[in-house]
Amino acid sequence: MTFGNPWFLLGALGALIPVLVHLFDRRRPRAHPFGPMAFVLRSQKRTASRLKLKRLLLYTLRTLILLAIPLALARPEFSRDAQAATVTRGPAATAIILDASLSMRWSDGTPLFEKGRDEARDALKDLLPEEPATVLVCTGSPETPPPPGFDRARLRALVDEAKPTYGTADLSRCLDLAARALEESPMAGKRLVVVSDMTATGFRLEAPPPTVKGPTGELVKPEVVLRDVASGRESLDNHALVDLRVEPALQAGPRSYQFTFTVRNFGATPVKDLEAAVRVGESTLAKGFVDVPAGGTTQKTLTVRFPQGGTVVGAVTLAPDALAEDDRRAFVLPVPRGLKALVVNGSPHATRYRDEAFFVDAALTSPGSPVDVAVRDAEVGLREDFTAYDLVLLLNAPAPSVEEAAKLTAFAENGGGLFVSVGDHVNPEAYNQRLGALLPRPLRLVRTSAEREDPDAETKTAKLAQVQVDHPLFAPFTGRAEEGLIGARFYKYMLLEADSPSAPGTSQVLATYEDGAPAVAVARRGKGRVALFTSTVDRDWSDFAIRTSFLPLMQRFAAYLTGSLEEREEVRVRVGETVTLRPEGTQKVAAVRAPDGSEVPVKAQPDGSFVAGPTVEPGVHTVVGADGKPVAALDFAATLDPAESDLSRVPQDTLTAYFGEDTVKASTGDADKPAVPLWTWLILAACLAFFFEGTLLRK
């Protein structure tokens, strides 16, 4: 027991006053013979026992009054385990480690981190005046704390200013750093005070426990005091959104996506009818309910159709629980805008399936496609106003006139997309003369790999051999989807020159035939893109148009050439990690802002990319260009580490065995603290004693 005002204990000597009065008040009566006294003596014998009891009670109550008042003024408190350790071990240099991980945001009305700060303040208050101390706020990347000192105000300020993070806390690393800091104190005693919820993710129990150098240089175990802010709970129930996939939902129409997210229940009780929703701003676009078994996982898929294209910023959410931070996951989704395409049909036919534009038109207007197609023959189509379109497709069309070629060149350089396929109506010399500066590579001549009537045509036809699947255009065609490409047979195809003399080195071959001849070549022209397919898009020169890969490839051509195909890889970054941003062209990144508006460090790289981070907060991070304008295409969402959502706790016995049997378990939590101070009860006892003492005197 300790006393806030020990000098008031001297007043307890006043409790001796009733005893002294009792001793000095004991008189011996003189004997006087008197006959009638016989009657008085007989009456006194009947009341003697009652009077003795009354006098004993009076002396007891008066002693209690004079004893309780000075004890109450001395403000006694029962000593805590940490203080008991101090008494038995003596003064010690102390390091207080405050857990600042995401799990400390768990709240049952009061966040665990707030309880942790109270515990850290109590640990500072419990120190003896001669005990130096230091404070370490433990995060995923902790810094070495300052050496122990006696500036209590500075240490309290560190605790008051501490904030919980959104990442993990490496308590084992923090204990090692704190132990190194304690070695700088000459005091023999060393103490580590751990203020934490004791979740398993914070400890690496396979590593050896912390040690410090003793006075003679030997390694000794410091005293370890565990302050459990979870008040000894067996578990901290929590459910979390641990994964999210966003994929196009072509069956639901243009600009439709399905959101598939995984919900994990880390608690010991099942979760019923948990609300899940997709939200953009304050609007709820889709909502459903899921049941998650205890300790289990459930997936939920919601389909959303966006009314228009552009970069959509939103979040999928769960009904919040005690740890609301992991019940939400933000997303940045590039939704393709509606496209207008002009198809210039160079070989119309009365029979639809033999028409040059039939298969292309069917692919671009299929369900889920955002392309609005206008089909024109070559004579009419080349006279159209190209500025009204996002994409122009020349399908086996004759070479345009000089004026028409100039219009096409201006269209591409101003950001339009141009797709060119060849055929019997394409004259290589005329195309090179009119569109040589626009094509990725000059045309050369037609090669025939096999005639359709040839019995061995199946083995002689050319096939695609090398496809750049790392390019956005062909990215989906991997695994089983690759068969739709490499299985296509080409009877004829156009050979290309090495490169365009007017723009050397600007073209890129994305697919080749077995003999190495280019099948698909692309190039940038001004702000736009041009793609050249060296065979036909009908069935005249190949059977590619009836292959399963044709429809998605034509849609990706439309998206890629108009710049609406997402070329950058999906940015997956967790809180605490860095992210590499790759701006398009000569664009620069000036700043990256976190959801709370603070700036994330950004560093330019020699290859033109930018490294931002480490991120410290989940949610959408906005990117600002050198011109001060937002670059929505580079925005990204940082997510939480699902491991930190697992709030499984390390049993006290396990920690005791890990740190050693001399580990001290501190009394923590409001349940272990008396609701009313002891000195208040002493004052109440004194008042009751005074009341009963007066009652006895009146009787």
Automatic annotation (TrEMBL):
The chain crosses the membrane at residues 6-24, 56-74, 678-697. Residues 94-197 form the VWFA domain. It comes from the Bacteria. Keywords: Membrane, Transmembrane, Transmembrane helix. Residues 1-76 form the Aerotolerance regulator N-terminal domain. InterPro entries: Aerotolerance_reg_N, Class_I_gatase-like, Double_TM_dom, VWF_A, vWFA_dom_sf. NCBIfam families: two_anch (TIGR02226). This is VWA domain-containing protein. The lineage of its organism: Bacteria, Pseudomonadati, Myxococcota, Myxococcia, Myxococcales.
